[in-house]
Amino acid sequence: MRAMLLAAGRGERLRPFTDSLPKPLIPVGGRALIEWHLAALARAGFTQVVVNLSWLGERLRAALGDGGRFGVTIHYSDEGPVALETGGGILRALPLLGPEPFLVVSADIFTDLDFAPLRHEPAALAHLVLVPNPAHHPRGDFALEGDRVVLEGERLTYGNVGIYRPEFFCGCTPGRFPLVEPLKRAIAAGSVSGQLFTGQWSDVGTPERLAELNGRLAQVQ
Prior knowledge:
By secondary structure, this protein is an alpha/beta fold. The chain is 25% helix and 27% strand. A hairpin with a 2-residue loop joins β9 (142-145) and β10 (148-150).
């Protein structure tokens, strides 16, 4: 299985940090945020990783290189000056991801989730990792009925970690679009499985949440 790290976003809410530094290169616990993901993917046995680029993409490419020092091979999907959002970015990268199901992780989260055991159901188009609702997102996104993701019920938050089959994107038009649009269609059709993860997970989306995470990590290092 290949993996994709979503790293093209501007990171508006993390300004001024992201005015001169791509969000995935923001230091967390003494290393760049995206480096935590690359190390975790390598530990889980992933060897081929796609990273999409847009805002300050050349800085990200220069920092990560070919991925060799992290134990992986990095392939870059350059979206140009305007990021294609989550859905459009994955659709553009499909030729690099191959014909088999692939893992997608947003580079702007921090988690201790072990990627190795993640699997999708053979009949499912996607498999989502859901987490308890953080304080900044109390309404959540989707619900779970057993191992099936549904639109109504006791809501949880999509943890920005999921496995997708290439067929999930059938019918999508190239360009900018959020992943939530095809996700809702697939969930309504009963084609998305899921699981609850209760370990460490943070959306590093604001200076305040970044400071809180760095403070937490400093206590355990």
